[in-house]
Design brief:
The chain has 325 residues and is an alpha/beta fold. It has helices at 22-29, 46-66, 81-86, 91-112, 140-155, 170-183, 205-216, 230-233, 259-264, 273-286, 301-311; strands at residues 16-18, 69-73, 119-125, 161-167, 187-191, 222-226, 247-252, 292-295.
Length: 325
């Protein structure tokens, strides 16, 4: 049974962490070859599974140390049909590896979950196409049909929720949201933006969020921004408009480089963890409901620790205690 599916504790004002950049950590720090950024493929060997387990354990240890909640995303950002075909997976093998990903996280939850550090398990959904360049734009119905299969598998596991990360156009987000509704799972929609704060299609973040909410009766439990540096979207969210209250999470890149520059980079730009922590403080000034903080490309436990230490005072009451409402 999913422990928190019907009562997600991050829908409060307490601070939650996520992990950092899984794929960039594996590629640049561990020297792992990840065709198509497909981390789920590591689950097919004992060594690969052990490596993923240790990766997630490092964040569970951090969350335990700072006594904060943690949302663990399954390593399945690429574990959907089109990407699986490129890696010669059958339909049954793909279903099995998605289940195996949640089972790996469940082992960590059993070890670390507590009142002070609740561990939320999220089935991670990625875009059908490239995360940065929307070459193939689906209709809402096409997106719903494409993503439904993976989400249906997650609904039969102990995953508490679904998170669709690095989405770059609203029609796919709408299709994913409708598929989540059909399988009865809470879903988070996370858009990526360019250095101008707009989606890669040129649509504003505001319009994208409002379009999804209108089309789905505001079914997403909240929105996130990921795979962009805070400097790319700080001005976009800085006007205290109503739509920004729908944003609860940020998983920023370590680098200030554009998506195009990152695609061409042969070395990891890890940025400055302390500076990134300060950037999150600035975001919190404008995003009243922001309470889920993590990282994306180029970030690791150093960055998430600095983000936690920088922002934790913002979640303290007058007596210096964490707010656990």
């Amino acid at each position: 049974m999913a422990k928190y599916r019907n009562s997600l504790p991050q829908l409060s004002n307490r601070l939650f962490l996520t992990d950092g950049g899984l794929e960039t950590t594996l590629i640049f720090h561990e020297g792992i070859d990840l065709p198509y950024f497909a981390a789920f493929n590591l689950l097919n060997t004992e060594a690969g599974s052990a490596l993923l387990y240790q990766y997630f354990i490092s964040y569970a240890e951090l969350a335990k140390r700072v006594e904060l909640g943690l949302i663990l995303e399954s390593p399945t950002w690429r574990a959907s049909k089109d990407w699986a075909i490129l890696l010669d997976y059958s339909k049954s093998e793909l279903s099995a590896v998605n289940r195996k990903a949640i089972e790996l996280l469940e082992r960590i939850r059993k070890k670390y979950d507590s009142l002070k550090t609740p561990i939320i398990l999220s089935g991670c959904i990625g875009p059908r196409d490239d995360g940065y360049i929307p070459n193939q734009i689906m209709s809402e119905n096409e997106a719903e049909n494409y993503h439904h299969e993976q989400m249906k598998v997650f609904s039969t596991t102990t995953a508490d929720m679904l998170s669709a990360l690095t989405l770059n156009y609203s029609e796919e987000a709408i299709g994913i949201t409708r598929a989540a509704y059909k399988v009865g799972m809470p879903v988070v929609i996370s858009f990526t933006v360019e250095i101008d704060g707009c989606l890669p299609t040129g649509q504003s973040l505001k319009d994208a969020i409002q379009q999804v909410d209108i089309a789905t009766s505001a079914y997403p439990i909240y929105y996130m921004i990921n795979c962009a540096h805070p400097s790319h979207f700080l001005q976009t969210v800085s006007h205290h408009e109503v739509w920004t209250t729908r944003i609860r999470g940020v998983r920023a890149n370590a680098s200030k480089k554009s998506h195009a520059e990152l695609n061409e980079a042969s070395e990891l730009d890890a940025g400055d963890p302390k500076e990134l922590g300060k950037d999150y403080i600035q975001l919190k000034k404008y995003l009243d409901n922001l309470n889920i903080l993590g990282g994306c490309c180029g970030t690791d436990t150093r960055h998430i620790e600095q983000i936690a230490l920088s922002c934790l005072p913002l979640f303290m009451d007058a007596k210096g205690s964490k707010t656990f409402l």
